[in-house]
Records
---
Amino acid sequence: MKPEPCDPVPPGGTIGILGGGQLGRMLALAAARLGLKIHVYSDMCDAPAFDVVENRTCAKYDDQQSLAAFAQSVDAITFEFENVPSATLAMLAREKPTYPGAEALALTQDRLAEKDFITGLTIPTTLYAGAQTLPEARDAIVRTGVPAVLKTRRFGYDGKGQWAITGADDLESIFAKLKGAPAIVERLVDFAFECSLIAVRSRNGAFGAYDCPENIHGEHILRRANVPAPLTRGQSQEAKAIAARIAEALDYVGVLAVEFFVTRDGGLLVNEIAPRVHNSGHWTLEACLVSQFEQHIRAVAGWPLGDTARHSNAVMENLIGAEADDWQRLARQPVALHLYGKNEIRPGRKMGHVTRLSPLSETRDPD
Amino acid sequence: MKPEPCDPVPPGGTIGILGGGQLGRMLALAAARLGLKIHVYSDMCDAPAFDVVENRTCAKYDDQQSLAAFAQSVDAITFEFENVPSATLAMLAREKPTYPGAEALALTQDRLAEKDFITGLTIPTTLYAGAQTLPEARDAIVRTGVPAVLKTRRFGYDGKGQWAITGADDLESIFAKLKGAPAIVERLVDFAFECSLIAVRSRNGAFGAYDCPENIHGEHILRRANVPAPLTRGQSQEAKAIAARIAEALDYVGVLAVEFFVTRDGGLLVNEIAPRVHNSGHWTLEACLVSQFEQHIRAVAGWPLGDTARHSNAVMENLIGAEADDWQRLARQPVALHLYGKNEIRPGRKMGHVTRLSPLSETRDPD
């Protein structure tokens, strides 16, 4: 029998997580602190999250029998990456309380639907237009202007499935790389910096948000998150209000990350939203009493949300590829060192991160 | 082949932990952050630490075959409670690097040997005398004076195996309760307060120590640890120096807790030492970048020790027995909530703890 979604999962209960990467691993560790058990379901049998949980399923995300057994074994379900098939999530949601919901997931899986949704809430975003065909792509570029980026609507991450459009391009050959995948053209923004807001919404609609970090990328991968971002008080409040409107409109439950471009004239444009815990929120593990991972587990489990206050400023830096080989040197520094237990170091692969704390300030210290 | 003790266990390696209670669970969670795997060996098949680890053995602590297989499966070994048979530890130490060593464990398992050792280092402790027989007990009480406490030399914890001696006692009937177990008489100290020092020593002799909390007990169980304790700078330095001498003399590797009585004239008396992570050090999870649990794992794994600095003041309170039923209220407070995943609530059982942080101060704020 499907439990009432209003019943919290008590200590000793089990949360199921679809996906077994570092986000799932850190979710599992946060759940453990609350006395909750975790069942991880991943299609990779050496998933990092498997090391730290009681129950593991290694199976495809469309394996109905394994999914049914998984649902049977848990009290509530969530996911740690947004490329879970939304049909899988919808099927699981019929069995057990499943958060975030399949609709929110489906929306954030499609860049065009997501941007239409944001725009529909009258929240500013970058200029964009859909591009299903080559002629549509040409039209889209006229509408957005250049420089722009042609992106696949689905399954992109860390800069994969993206091509720069400068205006003097061989659009036909670029478009061919899509291999028929639906696409979107987005105008490149000449922003001052990027920041992100990690928000959380509970089953009963309570909302919380952490302070925004400034995010510094290199080769399309997050390198560093620096908290607090150099936002005015007004900008911070606006970012939280935008995230709250998005979460409310989606009837969202769990942690939601909203990435912003801060323009040179101080405006906030939503770049994209991620229906999950986010790399730019890892600093909350050390700088807050309740991390983004614990907040997500609390929301999914129907618990009260925790305090989002931070007691320190923080700088989080990712360890990418072979940078994690340097663990002995990093272990000597006054940092919190996190290694994700991945068996194989690959270029561009997120292997771990380090967080430094410094005393709390309203505005960020100069670098 | 037994590896050289100087080789660190690299990320991806496995640490074996004897004992599966909350300390083992928190050690396992700390190891996970470093990308290390954990194999827990416990004689209780519902051990809380089993929920959060890759490999589990449920077997008796003298089951040679299970112990051999356990040793085979790990890269280094430690324990989370001091009543591990020291013969078991000695056997395991022949197979794999095992820390702390069997000698340190054996010493701290025997209150009389421990006090003789402390005294031999010319470190002040309470007045004490061994009491193997009833006449010896009478003599011991004459030597220590009253009020005093008669304690079993071995296997006591949280006030179990202890009897008050006021001077007007029926010593014969009290002594009978020992059922022949070797005992010790300790003079009760009229102390100002109790505090403890959580120290760590690495395989290569590096030493670190956290600031001392003041410990408040109720019914012989730690209720609260309040950091920093109201010690003078000189007392803090003395406490660290004492712990360093003890660790050095034992050639100790891992986390060591030294409990002190602070007398009304400002002296420090060693009450007892624990060869493990300690309940009074749980606040290090939130108030430091590297917790006592991670320090212990680092020491056992041959890693560099981490920073012991704290960025905040902290108050840790245990959740005993039915207090953990109150988790929904506690989850709303601005605290770090820890629940240990124990299946059964029993009176006096440590079910979890909460930690509050406040801004750093050299001396403690008044309560």
---
Amino acid sequence: MPVNLPSPKKADLLAVSGIKLGLSSAGIKTVGKEDLVLIELVEGTVTSAVYTQNAFCAAPVILAKQHQQQTSPRYLLINSGNANAGTGEEGMQAAQACCQTVADLTASRSNTVLPFSTGVIGQQLPVEKIQTALPDAVKNLRKDNWFNAAHAIMTTDIVAKAVSKKIELDGRVITITGMAKGSGMIRPNMATMLSYIATDADVEQSVLDAILHNAMEQSFNRITVDGDTSTNDACVLMATAKAGNARISNIDSESAQKIAAVIDEISQQLAHAIVRDGEGATKFIEINIEQGHDDEECRQVAYTIAHSPLVKTALFASDPNWGRILAAVGRSGIKDFDLSKVAIYLGDVCIVDGGEPAETYSEEQGQHVMDKEEITIRVELGRGQARDTVWTCDFSYDYVKINAEYRT
Amino acid sequence: MPVNLPSPKKADLLAVSGIKLGLSSAGIKTVGKEDLVLIELVEGTVTSAVYTQNAFCAAPVILAKQHQQQTSPRYLLINSGNANAGTGEEGMQAAQACCQTVADLTASRSNTVLPFSTGVIGQQLPVEKIQTALPDAVKNLRKDNWFNAAHAIMTTDIVAKAVSKKIELDGRVITITGMAKGSGMIRPNMATMLSYIATDADVEQSVLDAILHNAMEQSFNRITVDGDTSTNDACVLMATAKAGNARISNIDSESAQKIAAVIDEISQQLAHAIVRDGEGATKFIEINIEQGHDDEECRQVAYTIAHSPLVKTALFASDPNWGRILAAVGRSGIKDFDLSKVAIYLGDVCIVDGGEPAETYSEEQGQHVMDKEEITIRVELGRGQARDTVWTCDFSYDYVKINAEYRT
């Protein structure tokens, strides 16, 4: 039951000139389900990527990073159903073998292929199944496959996540299309989260890197479902230079800011979609921390609230048990914390003022906010000018059910 | 369904000379339930206490700390059903009024009374109900009331937690009896956790403080149910000096070590009881981190595993999804982490060796360990000699149920 998250419509997802997507069914987890996506990037495409910060990162992450340092990527290979994580040397060889097969089938070098895997951790990748299915994926490489690809990369996702936008630069129409998957193990620094955003704009590497970094900090790095960071996260931004705009080589230029704003928007929309489809989610929660001494302490308070099982279960129950929010703020570990300056709001309703229960607060007001599907929690720390925002969801029976039964 | 936690037997709980406990029903949450405990300490009792580190600590915690600085406690007043937390100035006055009533009824000064509250946060304490019920509690002050008191302080606890032990010092029999409550909001630095341990031994203040501090570090400060730290935690250690042993004034003396060992044991037993009765718990988990560079990083890894909802739901499902443990170790944030030295064990079964899946591992072995009610997870970091242990429980449907329905 994703929270206010309609499935994308096939017709709304725009092809990006220079990008083709091929699909196939390797039967990794479910026979017949499409679980393999091959993305072909036209020569000259500039690619930027960020990966999980989990020290135990998966074999495909290690290999993708290596390949990206060696040459410009021409293919992205994504499989769902198996994360190829915690698989040691055998897992590395498996990822390499898959890249090699793509190279053989497309007459390219294997280090131009970036591998991505998502699914269960600790089982060896069924390499032969993938190799057997790959020719099919190569055969059906098409520009208009975004809709199907967004479905093929899903694991515990209920709804596919994809969006397209258009802007004009230099009188040329620029298209940006992105897709993502993920609904559990979601946490700052990314988590079983894969996201691919492509544009036909012409953007220099350093500018593309900056755009991706900034977009991440306002989207995928500010969402959390359960505080767990996956071994496999990756976010890739591709620019094919097929739209014919003047090459964007300065991050401060009007063109760069214009396309950055759209990529921010798409990233945030995809990141929110992941939270809305959070495992077992019934509520979408925005947590705003304001008046902090610095950004870091704002995030610290935000994540303490966002990760509190007691807050999350109260949100699930639509229970304005704001004492749990207050307790979470109190234990967030901020130094020299002057509580008498703290205010806490549930939606527009002030629940704590000057560190004490707000005189104006009534249970009815709190209940009115909690009954909604989208809830904003705002905390004023009274310590400075910094602010930050984190998005999360509630904690329901279904979260436990999904994660207790994932492998069975 | 507490995990291997039998209810204490009334006959097993020994009176401690110099300590009387009185009970009463104020009807704070449930009419007729005993929810008020008054503990009377004989004159000359030495008392040591530690309190929650939550910045938003509750009114009774603030007041108990103040009173303890002013004079030697003679009474502890504990109510369950309402935490008197997040209640501002009115909450402080409420706590003071309750202490004053105890003082009036016992012809003592109000600052010799330490107040303790546990229950729902953010509602004003029903002072009149407590004041009305207090004469009854004073009237039935008895030495043999530990069993009933352990039940009266319960909130979401299913099983009462209390234990007694005897040792001999200087040819005198020394009795130590302790009780505790708590099953949610449990985390390092304590959490909706109240614990009272009394002995008739004669122990100097500084030695008693040291004994309590050491005991805490091996018990209540090493357990976690959900990572939430309460606003109300307190642990009190009382020594009445009624047993007639030679006053213990040196922490390194044989007598001090002997009584410290028993208090450690009682603290750990009570702390484990809290985890075994963790909200919705079906498994009791010990997490041992070894070969760390220092204690702090051992705790960091232990708590990352212990707080991972994905690990906790896999434990609930008896699913040897050890990849989730590996992912938690990987994201625990240790600096310069050389994964090739890491080994992970589930019970006696090695699952990761030299940073890679153990060749000897089989799913059957893992399943055999996971099917048990008591599971040990051991991680060797290969970085040094430090070690630490944390205890936790799994994460079940019932955790969500209990915390979603707590106020309704």
